[in-house]
Amino acid sequence: MEANEKTDRIVEARMKLKRRFEEKMAQTPSMTDEKPRGAGPTNRHGMPAVPVGQTVTSKWPVLDLGYQPNIPLDKWQLNIDGEVNNPVRLKWEDLMALPQVDDTSDFHCVTTWSRLDVPWVGVRFMDLAALVDPKGSATHVMCYGYDGYSTNLSLEEALKPDVLLVHTADGQPLPREHGGPLRMITPQLYAWKGSKWIKRIEFLSKNQLGFWEERGYSNTAYPWRNDRYS
């Protein structure tokens, strides 16, 4: 009964967030761009499957800052705080007790390769946001990795239903070199917007630049506009 009640609370809070941000989400470029640049059949959002400048690969190249942290599951934790009413610190068992989502989406790297139709398992960002109840002042989030990485997202992007914190890819536990045990994915943006080895999500009252954004990468990162650099 307790688990059902927790799920009901998350669903109720999720729907509240959806109502609050659904108009902004619907107006984002990856949902409304009338002249998206790319090739191939349309994806589920109506955009070309392969954004401009991208090449499809079956491989999964490894990109990082030169450090791949090794976090045992019994030591792992995720802090969610900032402009929220109910900050939380999740252990691995807490994360796995949340509603789990199976989804298949595309992965677009700014270095010009794309992996299509990747099967993932994880937790929706929206459900994590529902747990902490963002304040009315919250407009953005900053995500931090165990490797010192950071990246920013507007809430209208972060709350999209295909933005997940994933622990499984291609039917296997997420490999360490790709951000395991847990990373964030952002299928409607370039992949650098999803932190590998994620350890903290900070809700912000205004936009702040993350690691690559401070070094000249785009603040918005829309693949179908070739929006790679500022």
Automatic annotation (TrEMBL):
UniProt xrefs under InterPro entries: OxRdtase_Mopterin-bd_dom, OxRdtase_Mopterin-bd_sf
CDD domains from the UniProt entry: arch_bact_SO_family_Moco (cd02109)
Domain Oxidoreductase molybdopterin-binding, chain residue ranges per copy: 69-212
Region named Disordered: 18-48
SUPFAM superfamilies: Oxidoreductase molybdopterin-binding domain
Pfam families named in the record: Oxidored_molyb
Transmembrane regions listed in the UniProt entry: none
UniProt protein name: Sulfite oxidase-like oxidoreductase
Organism field: Spirosoma validum
